[in-house]
């Protein structure tokens, strides 16, 4: 069959799934479903907003609304991929961007509103309640604060993004975001070598390490060896003895190279997310109900441990061992399920309102739960962590990003005073530079950072940027923003904590928590 | 806030960077309209790869003042590729990518090349000011790296000659992770200098596959690597052929059932066999933007450049880091070249034979090029026959009787027990060439 014909046939097989194949391998069916149910509001569709939204549309987001009252200018043709050619100059930018995105993925529901976002924020706050999440791009400080209040009130997730010359930032603002499926890259296996339960202990006892047949010896799973030796060792040493002693003891037995590698994965003590949360009530989210059950479990059946995860890494002769781990995990799950149902009953909720798969996933991920909480931007703006600012400004790797953070706020103050951004126009550059410097220093003083300096070169650069929105920077920032949106919407992986400041000069961008 | 003082311009935003002087800029930055116009009119950029990264790169470059772009990719579009309209399935990726961007950005010229990177002449690559890579394989990166570094020439005192430096910007992504790096041959480490950065590919021990499978991937690879050749003999497995894939999947299921192993799905089968790299639009967007930004900065000097490796990880929070790697002075690829000392009487045939034995090269079936002249070509047959007489001539004569010079050799190298196409630079020095007889034996390094 000639190549082209074959590809067309493959195409008709299961189109919606295969279209998203590459990303399904990352966030799975559940994540994809969450994306398809989400409705996104984009404020301002310059390149920053458009590029962010584009990535989400490609990902299969359910619906979006673009809010932008501006008309296409000639300059937009030079930085915005989604604006048509010269003929669209003078027409609605939102309309153009919306049409492009609709064409990109015909499954998404696309709408636009020709309105200045600042106006909408001031006159119609309830507009935002209908969305899952708002991506607010290129807003000045004032509007950011107002929108933040609105979204917190309405419990709508919010992501800010801004491109400014070779600088910019992304900031998530949500009251609380809980993650069960955090999918960390590296995480210790739940082997319980230090604390084997009865079934594991008896299995280990059936195996004799001193077996003479080398083949049989080679096939002993390393877990068994470690449990045995750890047990012997604790019996003859006090708890204070260091790991080196254990290592020495183990290496005197003839073990394979593979085992030595695995020894590096010795479990650390259970680190439990001891979050201060009140007793669950009828308003508590599923997450907190399950956390309450988890706490009970750990204090009772768990004997200090969370439910067993159940899966073990691939190793020689592990089939029987696999069963032992899986059985315990299943038993722990059943206990958790009972406790969850008890709590649901206590708070007057339907016993089946938290599904089995949800509880199972929670048990599997019990050691990896994440809770993210974000300060409101107005709190951060009026009361940032001063020591952090000072420390960063003095650090070679952080001063660029921290400088940009301050300057990005300073330019908004500048605009409030002089009705234009510094360096926005070609004339009067020197004056703008000196004014921006004064503005920035007074801002630092207001925050309590007396004595901190901003590099003059950076202030000059900020004026040089002249509030430009460069496509490449917008694509980068938009990419970061869309990434965060995906994590927030799918509730998988961990969203960033803090403000990401982009430093396009030397790429020493930083995540600042202030 | 519209700029009411000056007439509207398409390059409204770029102008701020290119027309205005600055302090945190490159060493040869001459701001002005001329710089902007020169970039637009004369600078040529090659984008290698027209997949997720490549397409974004083209768009980013087109909207950063570049007008003369080329893109090369040997593949056709599949349904599973991101950002594809159904009617494009089956067409060459390079052609569709070029068309897409030219449609939206007026004035940009993008020449697509539906071909393998190895099939292009070296001259083709030399025509570009800078090469941007959006590839998904180590081999392809190595090849381009070899080509670009091959242009590099050194002075008497081993300093790289500026006009022979061919910069590259390389990006790669996998799920939420990615990297962007700047390679300036002779100055920053090249791809080969830092080859140790890449982890070894996952390979299962054969006995596990044959005797004691424990997980779904083992079952799949058993069907793929052991059962298929057993049943199909000489017929090679084609991962793009749905019938082949389905056969492997069915066999994997059988084996999994035999051993009581869960988890074999069609999707996993594809993933394992094709070594599919999961991809998301946002990571591609981020990395290509970083690459395009560096391309603009390198070409124009409008800001400092990335020094020299940026890593990005967006899965757990957000982490970006810049690492300044250092060149390997003895790098076989971007260094001055492996020194080969020869006697003036050595024939070309003997030289080619020596390459096979040389411990650092192990190069078989070598073709030899001296500057613009091909001294010997292994293929195609017509050219092989034409160059065959050279084999019996002294290399010294063929190279114009110079005491030392650079040659490039291209052939099959044995690296880590795998055969790979290899292009290497050699510094050939002839002993006794300047009339002074060297009493030491000087045959082959």
TrEMBL record, chain A:
<dbReference type="InterPro" id="IPR045886">
    <property type="entry name" value="ThiF/MoeB/HesA"/>
</dbReference>
<comment type="pathway">
    <text>Protein modification; protein neddylation.</text>
</comment>
<keyword id="KW-0833">Ubl conjugation pathway</keyword>
<dbReference type="InterPro" id="IPR035985">
    <property type="entry name" value="Ubiquitin-activating_enz"/>
</dbReference>
<comment type="function">
    <text>Regulatory subunit of the dimeric E1 enzyme. E1 activates RUB1/NEDD8 by first adenylating its C-terminal glycine residue with ATP, thereafter linking this residue to the side chain of the catalytic cysteine, yielding a RUB1-ECR1 thioester and free AMP. E1 finally transfers RUB1 to the catalytic cysteine of RCE1.</text>
</comment>
<dbReference type="GO" id="GO:0005634">
    <property type="term" value="C:nucleus"/>
</dbReference>
<dbReference type="GO" id="GO:0019781">
    <property type="term" value="F:NEDD8 activating enzyme activity"/>
</dbReference>
<dbReference type="GO" id="GO:0000166">
    <property type="term" value="F:nucleotide binding"/>
</dbReference>
<keyword id="KW-0547">Nucleotide-binding</keyword>
<dbReference type="InterPro" id="IPR030667">
    <property type="entry name" value="APP-BP1"/>
</dbReference>
<protein>
    <recommendedName>
        <fullName>NEDD8-activating enzyme E1 regulatory subunit</fullName>
    </recommendedName>
</protein>
<dbReference type="InterPro" id="IPR000594">
    <property type="entry name" value="ThiF_NAD_FAD-bd"/>
</dbReference>
<comment type="similarity">
    <text>Belongs to the ubiquitin-activating E1 family. ULA1 subfamily.</text>
</comment>
<dbReference type="GO" id="GO:0005737">
    <property type="term" value="C:cytoplasm"/>
</dbReference>
<keyword id="KW-0539">Nucleus</keyword>
<dbReference type="Pfam" id="PF00899">
    <property type="entry name" value="ThiF"/>
</dbReference>
<dbReference type="GO" id="GO:0045116">
    <property type="term" value="P:protein neddylation"/>
</dbReference>
<feature type="domain" description="THIF-type NAD/FAD binding fold">
    <location>
        <begin position="20"/>
        <end position="492"/>
    </location>
</feature>
From TrEMBL, chain B:
<protein>
    <recommendedName>
        <fullName>NEDD8-activating enzyme E1 catalytic subunit</fullName>
        <ecNumber>6.2.1.64</ecNumber>
    </recommendedName>
</protein>
<dbReference type="GO" id="GO:0019781">
    <property type="term" value="F:NEDD8 activating enzyme activity"/>
</dbReference>
<dbReference type="GO" id="GO:0005737">
    <property type="term" value="C:cytoplasm"/>
</dbReference>
<comment type="similarity">
    <text>Belongs to the ubiquitin-activating E1 family. UBA3 subfamily.</text>
</comment>
<dbReference type="InterPro" id="IPR035985">
    <property type="entry name" value="Ubiquitin-activating_enz"/>
</dbReference>
<keyword id="KW-0547">Nucleotide-binding</keyword>
<keyword id="KW-0067">ATP-binding</keyword>
<dbReference type="InterPro" id="IPR014929">
    <property type="entry name" value="E2-binding"/>
</dbReference>
<dbReference type="InterPro" id="IPR030468">
    <property type="entry name" value="Uba3_N"/>
</dbReference>
<comment type="pathway">
    <text>Protein modification; protein neddylation.</text>
</comment>
<dbReference type="InterPro" id="IPR000594">
    <property type="entry name" value="ThiF_NAD_FAD-bd"/>
</dbReference>
<keyword id="KW-0833">Ubl conjugation pathway</keyword>
<comment type="function">
    <text>Catalytic subunit of the dimeric E1 enzyme, which activates NEDD8.</text>
</comment>
<dbReference type="GO" id="GO:0005524">
    <property type="term" value="F:ATP binding"/>
</dbReference>
<dbReference type="Pfam" id="PF08825">
    <property type="entry name" value="E2_bind"/>
</dbReference>
<dbReference type="InterPro" id="IPR045886">
    <property type="entry name" value="ThiF/MoeB/HesA"/>
</dbReference>
<feature type="domain" description="E2 binding">
    <location>
        <begin position="340"/>
        <end position="431"/>
    </location>
</feature>
<dbReference type="GO" id="GO:0005634">
    <property type="term" value="C:nucleus"/>
</dbReference>
<keyword id="KW-0436">Ligase</keyword>
<dbReference type="Pfam" id="PF00899">
    <property type="entry name" value="ThiF"/>
</dbReference>
<dbReference type="GO" id="GO:0045116">
    <property type="term" value="P:protein neddylation"/>
</dbReference>
<feature type="active site" description="Glycyl thioester intermediate">
    <location>
        <position position="207"/>
    </location>
</feature>
């Amino acid at each position: 069959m000639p190549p082209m014909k074959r590809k067309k046939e493959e195409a008709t097989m299961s189109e919606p799934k295969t279209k998203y194949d590459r990303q399904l391998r990352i966030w799975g069916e559940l994540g994809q479903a969450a994306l398809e149910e989400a409705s996104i509001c984009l404020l301002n569709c310059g390149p920053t907003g458009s590029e962010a939204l584009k990535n989400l549309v490609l990902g299969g987001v359910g619906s979006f609304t673009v809010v932008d009252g501006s008309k296409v200018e000639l300059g937009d043709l030079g930085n915005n991929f989604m604006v048509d050619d010269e003929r669209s100059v003078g027409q609605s930018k939102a309309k153009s961007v919306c049409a492009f995105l609709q064409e990109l993925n015909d499954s998404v529901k696309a709408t636009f509103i020709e309105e200045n976002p600042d106006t909408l924020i001031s006159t119609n706050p309830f507009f935002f309640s209908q969305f899952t999440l708002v991506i607010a791009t290129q807003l000045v400080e004032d509007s950011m604060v107002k929108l933040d209040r609105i979204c917190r009130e309405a419990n709508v997730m919010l992501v800010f993004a801004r491109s400014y010359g070779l600088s910019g930032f992304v900031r998530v603002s949500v009251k609380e975001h809980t993650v069960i499926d955090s999918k960390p890259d590296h995480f210790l296996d739940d082997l319980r070598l230090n604390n084997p339960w009865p079934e594991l202990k008896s299995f280990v006892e059936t195996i004799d390490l001193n077996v003479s047949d080398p083949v049989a010896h080679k096939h002993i799973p390393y877990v068994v060896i470690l449990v045995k030796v750890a047990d012997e060792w604790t019996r003859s040493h006090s708890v204070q003895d260091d790991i080196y002693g254990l290592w020495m003891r183990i290496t005197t037995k003839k073990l394979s190279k593979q085992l030595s590698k695995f020894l590096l994965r010795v479990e650390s003590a259970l680190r439990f997310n001891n979050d201060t949360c009140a007793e669950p009530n009828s308003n508590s989210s599923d997450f907190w109900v399950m956390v309450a059950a988890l706490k009970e479990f750990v204090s009772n059946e768990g004997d200090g441990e969370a439910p067993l995860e159940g899966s073990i890494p691939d190793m020689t002769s592990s089939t029987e061992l696999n069963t032992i781990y899986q059985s315990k995990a299943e038993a722990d799950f059943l206990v958790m399920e009972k406790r969850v149902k008890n709590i649901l009953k206590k708070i007057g909720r339907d016993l089946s309102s938290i599904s089995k798969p949800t509880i199972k996933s929670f048990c599997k991920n019990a050691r990896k739960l994440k809770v993210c909480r974000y300060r409101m931007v107005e709190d951060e703006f009026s009361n940032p962590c001063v020591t952090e600012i000072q420390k960063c400004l003095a650090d070679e790797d952080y001063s660029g990003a921290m400088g940009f953070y301050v300057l990005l706020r300073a330019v908004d103050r500048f605009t409030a005073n002089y009705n234009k951004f510094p360096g926005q126009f070609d004339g009067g550059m020197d004056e703008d530079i000196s004014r921006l410097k004064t503005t920035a220093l007074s801002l630092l003083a207001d925050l309590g950072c007396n004595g901190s300096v901003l590099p003059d070169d950076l202030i000059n650069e900020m004026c040089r940027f002249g509030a430009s929105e460069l496509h490449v920077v917008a694509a980068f920032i938009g990419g970061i923003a869309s990434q965060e949106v995906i994590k927030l919407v799918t509730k998988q992986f961990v969203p960033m904590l803090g403000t990401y400041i982009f430093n396009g000069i030397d790429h020493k961008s930083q995540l600042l928590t202030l | 806030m519209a700029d009411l003082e000056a007439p509207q311009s398409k390059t409204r935003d770029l102008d701020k960077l290119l027309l205005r002087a600055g302090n945190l800029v490159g060493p040869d930055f001459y701001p002005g309209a001329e710089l902007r116009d020169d970039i637009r009119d004369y600078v040529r950029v090659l984008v290698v790869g027209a997949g997720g990264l490549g397409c974004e790169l083209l768009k980013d470059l087109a909207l950063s003042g570049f007008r003369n772009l080329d893109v090369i990719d040997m593949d056709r579009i599949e349904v599973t590729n991101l950002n594809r309209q159904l009617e494009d399935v089956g067409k060459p990726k390079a052609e569709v990518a070029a068309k897409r961007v030219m449609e939206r950005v007026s004035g940009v010229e993008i020449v697509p090349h539906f071909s393998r990177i190895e099939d292009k002449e070296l001259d083709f690559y030399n025509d570009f000011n800078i090469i941007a890579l959006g590839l998904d394989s180590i081999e392809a990166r190595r090849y381009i790296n070899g080509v670009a570094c091959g242009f590099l020439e050194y002075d008497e005192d081993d300093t790289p000659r500026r006009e022979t430096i061919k910069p590259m910007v390389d990006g790669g992504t996998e799920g939420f992770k990615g990297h962007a790096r700047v390679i300036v041959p002779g100055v920053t480490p090249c791809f080969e200098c830092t080859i140790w950065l890449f982890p070894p590919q996952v390979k299962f021990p054969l006995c596990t596959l044959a005797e004691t499978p424990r997980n779904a991937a083992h079952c799949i690879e058993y069907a793929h690597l052991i059962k298929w050749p057993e049943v199909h003999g000489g017929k090679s497995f084609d991962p793009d052929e749905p019938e082949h894939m389905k056969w492997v999947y069915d066999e994997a299921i059988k084996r999994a059932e035999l051993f009581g192993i869960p988890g074999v799905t069609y999707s996993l089968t594809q993933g394992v066999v094709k070594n599919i790299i999961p991809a998301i639009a946002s990571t591609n967007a981020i990395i290509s933007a970083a690459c395009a930004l560096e391309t603009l900065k390198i070409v124009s000097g409008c800001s400092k450049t990335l020094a020299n490796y940026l890593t990005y990880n967006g899965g757990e929070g957000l982490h970006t880091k810049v690492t300044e790697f250092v060149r390997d002075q003895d790098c076989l690829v971007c260094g001055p070249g492996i020194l080969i000392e020869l006697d003036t009487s050595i024939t070309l045939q003997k030289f080619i034979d020596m390459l096979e034995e040389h411990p650092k090269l192990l190069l078989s079936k070598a073709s030899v090029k001296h500057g613009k002249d091909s001294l010997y070509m292994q293929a195609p047959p017509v050219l092989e026959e034409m160059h065959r007489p050279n084999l019996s001539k002294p290399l010294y004569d063929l190279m114009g009787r110079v005491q030392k010079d650079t040659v490039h050799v291209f052939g099959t190298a044995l690296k880590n027990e795998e055969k790979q196409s290899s292009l290497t630079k050699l510094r050939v020095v002839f002993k006794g060439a300047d009339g002074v007889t060297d009493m030491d034996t000087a045959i082959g390094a």
